[in-house]
What does this fold into?
Amino acid sequence: MTLRLKIYATLGVIALVGYLALLASITHGDRTARVASAERSARLMIVQADAADQYTRHEIAPLLDSAMHSRLVFIPQSAGFYAVETQGRQIERALEGYRLRRVVLDSTGPADTPDGWERDAIMRLRGTPDGAPFAELRPDGALAYVVPLTMQDGICATCYPSRDQAPLSVRDAFGSAKGFDRHPGEIVGATIATVPVAPFNLFGNASLLLAALVLLICWASACLLIEFMVLRPLSQIATVAERVSLGAPDVEEFDTRSGGEIGALTLSFNRLRRSMETAMALVRP
It folds into this structure.
């Protein structure tokens, strides 16, 4: 491999390593930003679910209390947890990959029954002193944001300190269900918002394409500078040196007007050439 190819290859490897390092940095930053965006969306879904729950329990339920007391019939539209379940179903239908679930331990039906991972998430909340919310990336690439559901009257179908303290309509609808005898402040379940995290698009990232173009231009510029400022002058010196060593007559001298190391080298070579010519003249008959 010639010196020229070695230099160009070395510069190419340096540019490639720099690009890979930049790629890793941009990919990590982009991934962090997309996860943070997904978490913000999940938090917003939780806030909206809590708003629907509180509005239903504080504004809608009092309007339906008389009907439930007189007929001893539980009306789901009066329950905050039903509003959250309905909202979750609408979100799943409208937005692919988005989920909103409010699940509880000792649930009363499939709508609020936690699956294996959701049950583990609830137990994780119950196992920490403060029961702080947490976010976790699922194996399918989605982000799940988990918020504890603390025991309050009516926060879930059977969230009452005892069966006797529950409204008659609730006792009639869920009297045989488990889940009563909840303790104040107990974490009885969780509200879980799941948001898909968009995959990283390597070829659609303008920053990476721009970085590749800039590195390519820098590599080409460095190669041209080395070619015209170092390699070509050295090649000319090598050609003249070969002609002088073979005893060719009337070999032109180098232009020594350029400064720097190449200029000093050509000046030294010219002096060496004159010395050789003088020595050759002395030994000729």
Summary: The longest helix spans residues 3-71.
